[in-house]
Amino acid sequence: MKPTSFLVGLAALVGLASAECPGGCSGNGVCGPRDMCYCFKNYAGNDCAQRVCPFGFAHVDTPKGDLDMDRNQKTAGWILDQSQVYPYKTYEWFNPDAKTNEAHFYMECSNMGICDRSTGICGCFPGFEGSACQRAQCANNCNGRGVCKSLSEIAASADAKGKLTGNPHDKVATKYNLWDANVGHACVCDPWFTGADCSRRACKLGVDPLYMAAGFPVLETFIIYTGIVPASTHLDSANSWYRLRVFDSYGAGYITDRIPIYATADVAKAVAAVEKAFLDIPNAVFSAIDCDSAGVAGTVGQGVMTDAVASEEGTVIVCQYVDNPGRMRLPEVAESRFAITGNVVQTTGTRAFVAAGDRRGENREWITTQSVFAFDGTTASTTVFSIKPADPTTTPSTVAPIAANSIIKIRDRHFLVASVQTTASITVVWPYTGPTFADYSTIFYSPSLTVAADATSKIVAWAVGSDTFEIDVDPTSLVVGSKIFYQNVYYFVRSMSLTTTPKTVTVDRKFNGKAADGTAVASSTDGLFIVSMPSPATGFFEYVSECSGRGMCSRDTGICSCFKGYTEDNCNNQNILAF
Asked: What Gene3D superfamilies does the entry give (predicted)?
């Protein structure tokens, strides 16, 4: 045989040998024993011609049948470890003993798309995106009126405290770390927009005019402190100022113009400057506000006690929203500048903050049931309220169910009951220093709210102007998100630090001092009273709502269409046609 003929025959045999694996593994794998292709990473198929697409946790998973072909669809335990399709194993059926989240295995295109085997790119189903279809899209990209965020981001930023928009109220930040923490997404809408895709408009809120005939709305009240202890000379009002960040009913934020800081003697100018700053906010966000100096009789400031600082020059102003009912976020001092005579800047010995008042705006009225007893205006006391039958022709034998740890309401003030003296009087925990109630003022109570002191923890210290107080020991029932009532003011717990010394609790508002005298709490052992609402919520009346509950809100325009007999942009005015 000639050498040339031998080489040609050998070459033919080599060609036949390489052709034993299908398609020569398409250049994407190695031909192994039994003429089977061992595909390189990201390739699959008997000839390695098909691309494998990216994997993600399956949004939805189902039992898959007899995957290991043993004629049993309920093979026990994990199977297919290190396979191309299930690299982290799977099982054939949903075992009742499966652990939480075990259904969300890694799957191609997260089981929410079709893999293009020629390109290795996922074609995602509508509503999903990402290289592995691993993210749920926000509907219509929030229509440009919101921000698309993951569930973990939404949970972490739920507390709007310190942010430029939003109304924190009872929302608390938390850590969400389940399988879909960065998979599920939703729109966080801008103020005044709502809906899954932020396409729906919100309407102006108002107080139901029918509620006004029987109840007393609680309008948000707050105290603005501005003061300086001059290092020398006196406060320079012409060069001292502060600016407030204020928020409307839906949490939209605005910055006021500079508000001059006046000396105590010029408090009337200070009050006028604050009211003007609110009324100057564009688009009549605040069409009315009532402000006055703390402690002035016959005004919103009557009975408001403040913490006096020796040699301090400045003012303490009490304000109440008049035309912005319901849940409101308190204003915050955005920036301030203090100067003494000659425009000399001073950064120590100053304070500028907004503290909580004793009237916290709410959308719901929980204290709705009228007692058979009324306030007896013939006697006056700061902690003991004399009572008498609301109907003089009757002689009720007991004030029950009002008892210790009940919250009662007289006009727009709330009080925590310490004890009841049968049919003669009600003693409250913290004193009332406001205007005297009229004789026969109605006493309301709640059949559904419960109030209980934490079994172990006490409030030890709380500085005026601080949103953090000290406790003595770890609480038993107090948790982040709890609503507490202290010194006649409601607060929501934002965070707790129980591994530090001292142990502390941070709430959503700054403290205005004791109800009796406005001073700080120090070396005390005050009860930590937790207010609980029933679940599901019952026994309340939602008296603040869109269109005041007396009209329909157009979600396209954000404009109220009032029922017959009701007018104004929020339908809160009743006329003769309603009768």
From this structure: Laminin (2.10.25.10)
Q: What are phi and psi of 421, to 5 degrees?
A: -100, 75
Express each pLDDT in 250-273 by its tens digit.
999 999 999 999 999 999 999 999
Q: What is the mean pLDDT of residues 443-465?
A: 95
pLDDT classification of 7: cutoffs 50, 70, 90: very low
pLDDT (tens digit per residue) in 42-63: 998 889 999 999 999 888 877 6
Dihedral sign, Cα of residue 55, residue 60, residue 63, residue 64? negative
Query: Does the pLDDT at position 90 exceed 80?
Result: no
Task: Kindly state the tokens that stand for 163.
Answer: 């942010």
Which amino acid makes up residue 254?
A: Y
> Contact at 8 Å (CB) between 492 and 173?
no
Token output for 211: 């509620």
Identify the DSSP state of 137.
P
Q: Name the token pair of 123.
A: 């074609």
Shared fold status for 367-445 and 450-532 = yes
Q: Please, what is the Cα angle at 571 between 567 and 574, to 5 degrees? A: 60
Supply the CATH classification number for the domain 450-532.
2.40.30
Q: At 322, list the tokens.
A: 């008049």
What is the predicted pLDDT for the residue at 93? 67
- Tokens 């993951």 locate to 150
- pTM score, two decimals? 0.85
**Distance, CA of 227 to CA of 263 (rounded, Å):** 8
Position 61 scores a pLDDT of: 77
- CATH number for the segment(s) 367-445: 2.40.30
Rounded CA gap, 212 and 182, in Å? 47
CA distance 139 to 555: 17
**In terms of C-beta density within 10 A (0-12 exposed, 13-18 middle, 19 or more buried), how is residue 238 classed?**
exposed
* Look-up of token digits 């509503």: 127
Answer whether residue 12 shows pLDDT above 90: no
Cα–Cα distances (Å) from 47 to 27, 120, 325, in that order, read 9, 16, 71
Which tokens hold the place of 374? 């009324």
* Per-residue pLDDT tens digits for 367-418: 999 999 999 987 767 899 999 999 999 999 999 999 999 999 999 999 999 9
**Cα-only R_g, the chain:** 34
- Tokens describing residue 326: 């319901």
Break the chain into its structural domains and give their ranges.
Answer: 138-201, 221-356, 367-445, 450-532
Using DSSP, state whether 191 is helix, strand or coil. coil
Angle at 259 between CA 254 and CA 260, to 5 degrees: 170
- For residue 453, give both structure tokens: 């002191």
Q: Name the phi and psi angles at 476, rounded to 5.
A: -90, -45
Residues forming a β-bridge with 530: 452, 484
What separation in angstroms does the CA of 43 have from each of 18, 22, 50, 68, 130?
Answer: 19, 14, 6, 21, 20
Would you say 298 and 317 are in contact if contact means Cβ atoms under 8 Å apart? no
DSSP, collapsed to helix, strand or coil, labels residue 141 as: helix
| DSSP string of 153-174, one letter each residue | HHHHT---TTSSS---TT----
**Can you say how many angstroms the Cα of residue 150 is from the centroid of all Cα atoms in its chain?**
17
pLDDT confidence band for 471 (50 / 70 / 90): very high
Over residues 504-521, the pLDDT tens digits come to 999 999 999 999 999 999
